[in-house]
Design brief:
By secondary structure, the chain is mainly α. Helices cover 82% and strands 0% of the residues. The protein has one domain (2-446). The chain has helices spanning 7-10, 13-38, 41-73, 78-105, 115-130, 132-143, 147-171, 176-196, 210-244, 247-258, 261-283, 287-314, 317-324, 333-342, 347-359, 363-388, 391-414, 421-446. The longest helix has 35 residues, at 210-244. The protein is globular, with a radius of gyration of 22 Å. 45% of the residues are buried.
Length: 449
């Protein structure tokens, strides 16, 4: 009994989701560190730009399908689940082939000869096809709250990629082309495992129905806008820096942004486990419960991030050195990281605002919020780079962007739910104290003094 008092916590969805995100984010930082030490700065900038454009396609697919699939699959009858999953496969195949085909056609256009786009035009179609089974498997496992399987899929992707990069570095053959090869191999291995294990649900493709397909497509028309807008918000900095300051500056900026993975770990974990609870409250037409779940998660996460944010602001040079090496310590990376991580205290309430608007069936309001932030960010980035001529202009532009989205989104949500900022922080603090008391009581019960 004494040795197992933590077992319920270690088996919980919250812990598995958090452990998965910690592991994967840690491996992402490791792979980034290897690349920064093994590739020229310009090649790193080109690789980051390739990932940004590839991620746009992934965001489109995820936005169009994942929310609707999880929303229709979670808690449904087995027959309904098969219909939803089979219909989602139809849409996923069509969308993947369409985007891959359009990019493939661009190989015979002038875009294929633009230096910054050449890598994307050549390799995106194959990458997008190879990641389809693992994408569908991830959506299904999240809907079933099988976070252990999600962890396996993520570890396969990152582990294969890091193993390939390490092998190339040891053999002295690391290059931009070989990094792309490792990326493709990791996608292929993960998707193969997802198919062989039956996690992707390809066999239920025959259970698709025209009505369910139309239902998912209709919902996807709205949800995809929010996903694409959110991705444009994250990637607009990358595109403008690459165009106006060049790949070398982009590499420095990306180094600072990589450490923000530490902030994203609890964010993704809390959101992954909270969405089913939010959806259940909405299905019960229980808006007070919906507001409580929002406040518990957004408020608690804000308090949890506070010491991490303060520590990073004080010691920003340390993560910059650990990830990028000594050559980046005297660059703009540390100060850019300080400014970026300070804004992270707004993330929990801002992110949960968007998710809750979607759950309420108001994805168009979330879309308006995200698009407003994109406009403010692009205008701010352009003005900041023109005025400052360096990365600080981009970092300064993040403040009005975040404040605009935070205030606008919260006011929209407040019209639907009984919320207040002070109440959210108060409920979050109470939730943290409750969790601490439960853990302390369990420890005392297992190890009495």
């Amino acid at each position: 009994m004494r040795s197992s008092f933590l077992a319920p916590y270690l088996r919980s969805n919250q812990f598995l989701s958090l452990a998965g995100n910690i592991t994967v984010s840690g491996l992402t930082i490791v792979s980034t560190s290897l690349l920064f030490r093994g590739l020229p700065t310009a090649d790193i900038g080109t690789w980051v730009f390739f990932l940004t454009l590839t991620g746009f396609g992934e965001a489109f697919r995820q936005g169009y399908l994942s929310t609707g699939l999880i929303r229709g699959y979670a808690g449904a009858t087995p027959g309904r689940q098969q219909q939803v999953l089979g219909s989602a496969w139809v849409l996923a195949l069509g969308l993947t082939l369409a985007l891959a085909g359009l990019t493939l056609a661009a190989r015979w256009s002038a875009l294929a000869h633009v230096a910054s786009l050449e890598l994307f035009v050549r390799w995106f179609p194959l990458t997008f096809l190879l990641t389809l089974p693992s994408f569908m498997a991830s959506c299904r496992q999240q809907a079933e709250q099988q976070f252990g399987r999600l962890l396996v899929l993520r570890l396969l992707t990152q582990g294969t990629f890091i193993g390939g990069i390490a092998g190339l570095m040891l053999s002295g053959r690391l290059s931009l082309a070989s990094v792309v090869g490792c990326h493709l191999a990791a996608a292929a291995v993960t998707s193969a495992v997802a198919l062989l294990a039956g996690w992707s649900g390809l066999r239920v493709l025959r259970c698709r129905t025209a009505g369910t397909t139309r239902e998912l497509a209709h919902f996807g028309k709205f949800s995809v806008g929010s996903y694409i807008g959110a991705y444009l918000l994250r990637s607009s900095d990358t595109v403008l820096i690459n165009l106006l300051l060049g790949p070398a500056a982009l590499a420095v900026y990306n180094l600072a942004q990589r450490f923000l993975e530490v902030i994203e770990i609890p964010l993704r974990s809390f959101m992954a486990t909270a969405i089913p609870r939010l959806a259940a409250a909405m299905n019960q037409q229980n808006r007070p419960l919906l507001a409580l779940v929002f406040q518990q998660n957004a408020g608690l996460l804000t308090w949890l991030l506070l010491p991490l944010v303060l520590g990073t602001v004080l010691l920003a040079e340390v993560p910059v050195y650990l990830v990028g090496g000594s050559q980046y310590v005297d660059s703009e990376a540390a100060n850019v990281l300080r400014m970026a991580v300070a804004l992270a205290l707004f993330y929990p309430i801002d992110r949960f605002t968007g998710v809750t608007l979607d759950v309420l069936g108001l994805p168009h309001l979330n879309l308006y919020k995200v698009l407003l932030m994109v406009v403010v960010n692009v205008a701010g980035d352009w003005a900041g780079i023109r005025l400052c001529g360096n990365l600080y202009g981009v970092a300064f532009a993040s403040l009005p962007t975040m404040l605009t989205g935070f205030v606008f989104g919260y006011l929209l949500l407040k019209r639907e739910l009984p919320l207040s900022l002070a109440g959210t922080l108060r409920v979050g603090l109470m939730e943290g104290r409750t969790m601490l008391r439960r853990l302390t009581a369990a420890a005392h019960a297992a190890y009495p003094l």
